[in-house]
Amino acid sequence: MNKRIKPVKKIMLLSLLLIMVSVANYYVYKIATHRQIFFSVAPLKNYHRVLILGAGKNNPVFYSRMNAALKLYRTAEIEKITCSGLTGVVNYSEPYDMRDYLLQNKVPDSIIVLDTAGNHTYNSVVNYANQHKGDSVIIVSQAQHLNRALFIANCKGLRAVGFAASGFHGDYNREWAFTEFLSRIKCSFNLVFNS
What we know:
Blueprint: H1 2-32, E1 37-38, E2 49-53, H2 60-75, E3 80-84, E4 87-89, E5 92-93, H3 94-104, E6 112-115, H4 121-131, E7 136-142, H5 143-155, E8 159-165, H6 170-193
Parallel strand pairs: 1-8, 2-3, 2-7, 3-6, 7-8
Antiparallel strand pairs: 4-5
Helix pairs in contact: 1-5, 1-6, 4-5, 5-6
């Protein structure tokens, strides 16, 4: 009898865990942040600071985010642009690559801020929240990614909205969706345990 109970308990615990993960993902994706994501600049005219989330330079995600940030800079009154991303790997620095791209496109160096400690979305948003308490900010990334970034911002008391860069297509979109599903789980643990 005892041997039968153990597998049943394991199945029940696993089922409960899967339900919790699915609910957390649905909450982050659908309920908590969807009204904070914008696809046009017009509603964002009263925001003056931008946080660009990092991406490797030689891929469409990088250029999509950077061009979205340039669109904001050219059509809104942007005072500061924070470039946050992975640094520390030899000859690889997302913040410096973002800065170079902005400079090449006539954004003045005086408004660019580098966050070289933004190795993950969680770190990027928390770093910004810690350094700019009370500020409002536009976070730039793809819509699929903005849900998680904005959820973190909300939990950390940052007044944030998202400006959606162009999205993903085909197999890359499916791969990103799976990665984002897992990242939301990790994000929930980070927020619960404040790590």
